[in-house]
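In the laboratory, one determines a bound structure by crystallizing the protein with its ligand and collecting diffraction data. In a computational setting the workflow is compressed into a single prediction: the sequence and the ligand go in, and a structural description comes out. We illustrate the idea with pterin cytosine dinucleotide.
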Amino acid sequence: MATITEVEVGRVVGTSVKRKEDLKLLTGRARYIDDIELPGMVWMSVVRSPYAHATIGSVDLSAAREAPGVIAAFSGEELAGEWAGSLPCAWPVTEDINMPAHWPLARGKARHVGDGVAVIVAETREQAADAIELVMVDYEPLPAVVDPEAALGEGAPLVHDEFGTNKCYTWALAGGEVDEAFASAAASVKERYRQQRLIPNAIEPRGVIAQPIPGTGDLTLFSATQVPHILRVTLAGVIGMPEAKLRIVAPDVGGGFGSKLNVYAEEALAAALARRLERPVKWIETRSENYLATIHGRDVVQEIELAADADGRVTGVRVKLVAAMGGYLQLVTPGIPLLGAWLYAGAYAIGAYSFECTGVFTHTTPTDAYRGAGRPEATYAVERAMDALARELGKDPVELRRLNFMKEFPATIAAGLTVDSGDYEAHLDRALEILDYDALRREQAERRQAGDPKLLGIGFSTYLEMCGLAPSRILGAIRYVAGGWDAASVRFLPTGAVQLVIGTSPHGQGHVTTFSQIVAERLGVDVDDVEVLHGDTAVSPIGMDTYGSRSLPVGGTAVWHACQKVLDKARLIAAHQLGVTADDLQEEGGTFTAPDGSLVTAKEIAFAAWTAHDLPDGMEPGLEALAVFDPENFSWPAGTHVAVVEVDTETGSVDLRRYVAVDDVGRVINPEIVQGQVQGGLAQGIAQALWEEAVHDEDGNLLTSNMVNYLVPSAAELLSFELDRTETPATTNPMGVKGVGETGTIASTPAVMNAVIDALAPYGVTDIDMPATPERVWRAIHEVKR
Ligand code: MCN
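The predicted complex, in structure-token form:
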């Protein structure tokens, strides 16, 4: 294991090159979907159900159709003929899963507040919005069910009558002798946690423009999406259009956090209406719509049990989940809780494992991928349960973790996958060092002794993450319908500049910079000489897009391989030019050197390849290559996060005093971008612990329907994080990189909650539901006191 200071840094890779993206972003010149105006463009608005569950009787659009500027209005029934297929769910996790039809507009019944029931097209945005008020829908409200456990209960209102149950599926995974581990355990804990429902808040809401191309029947769809390639193939199936006639453009996209990894009703509606009206149709989501019509995250009830021997070695883990799907299945809804299925044993060497998840329909907005997607939930459960076990055994939570860490790599976990590399004690030790752990524990004891009303709490999370989604064969084995590879094309232009076309679709992650760094390092060009093209299926026709912290380990590795292919061809031209055999040449950073010291650079070779005046016999002109990379394994980042909190026992308020994060994301391309990713992730994970929660009333109305009562933190609520890294290179890609985009979110929620519970140890408090609001903390203290 090397600490970061000892790790080799390349000429460009490993350095904090300033983000090439930032000039236009910081000077307000980015081009988001709402900046796009097209000639003849009209606006779409969606009439949404105010009821979580209701039959839809007549839909009277006559007044709306007469309203100023209105061009057309349609109900779900009227547009039924437009759809060749239902909105897609690409992850039917079991053979017997209940998969309901999901039409872009509801027909017959509305199944969550915000479910679209009719659509209006008008000359202006305001006219389209105003006309919504004139639509008369004859709803018959029905009882709704919001809680996933209640939805499984006898007599619960059914979300989809045709299934006779609200159960969507049950999925299980096991390894080792779990029952035996529990039967012979010297100690065990059984915990129940609630992963509250979260609402993704990308700064830019969703938006779409569908533009019919006159004379060809083609359609261009501009969308604020993370997944232009996936959108193209799936939307073609919904609107019944040959894929070749549909072009998707993702312009600058202002964040997504998983919520734009989807195929949404509004994309299908805009496409169908643009075809029908032969005019470009635009829709921009309002923030209120964002809260109802864009997917939500989490909403899982977890039961986790740990069995241990007398020394505290954990011998078995048993997990049962009930996960809310919401009213319909979006693109990967059923698979999200299962992305954590391999991680409920955390970073620990535990021989026996069993996991079972039941997906349940509820009358709520569908859930789907939200930063971390399944893995924050798993990490939360195991890290909270490790603290519970430490309490049960009277051990220090740090020492319990250290005792149980996986130590030999590659390590095959009981759930069946293999972790390629890691050194968990290294990041734990580094975190303890930064923290000055012993001093903090002393301070804690002194304050308790002195009766300080503000109690100190220290919470750990030694997480293991599985990301870099990923090996196509494994994705196939778990019934995901697409592959997990990615693609990159590298093309030398005549002057020695390089054009890089990528299959990932950045929306804040900085791929233009980091992927330029890879090209610059490999081919010996400047970072600014690399032009990076993405986000338009006419320019980048193949790729699998951006989610699951996959872009660097998968897409970035494709860039590396494409550079290698370019160098392989350049070597043949260099040998020809220098009059030696290809094997005689040494290559470093794109420069080929012959044994006599004569040399030629890839840039110079690029010009020769373009003129093609003197190439080896039979060689094609040009210097370019396409590489498609499908990794053999997932990427396994890990780390130690520690939250230090002060809990005011008089008011219940929780203040973060320090936050230390030591992450191992393998080799790093750009340390500053990595730091930014960790910081953003931390904000979201800490927010789950302390502030954010989507609350519904029993009729399924969303009570936290805007940012006044759904508490998204700003920088002011957070503190300066203390960040560091250790590095164990991944062994499954040539750069040794692991993903970083979700680490902060995955690690931080349990660290903060463990700190809150640690602070309240003198009161005997062992659990508080998230978010740990002042009211909940105060009640926990006073309920236990009584
Ligand atoms: N990187 C690096 N060295 C590493 C790992 C990553 O230099 N060892 C760099 C990469 O080259 C890339 C960035 O860090 O520029 C993130 O890389 P990666 O971990 O591969 O994640 P992705 O690019 O695939 O991004 C997806 C991830 C996810 S899943 C969510 S959710 C998320 C996140 O990224 N949403 C984001 N970060 C976000 N950041 C912003 N600004 N906005 C979002 O919506």
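Confidence is low (pLDDT under 50) at residues 1-7. Keep in mind that any predicted model is a hypothesis to be tested, not a measurement.
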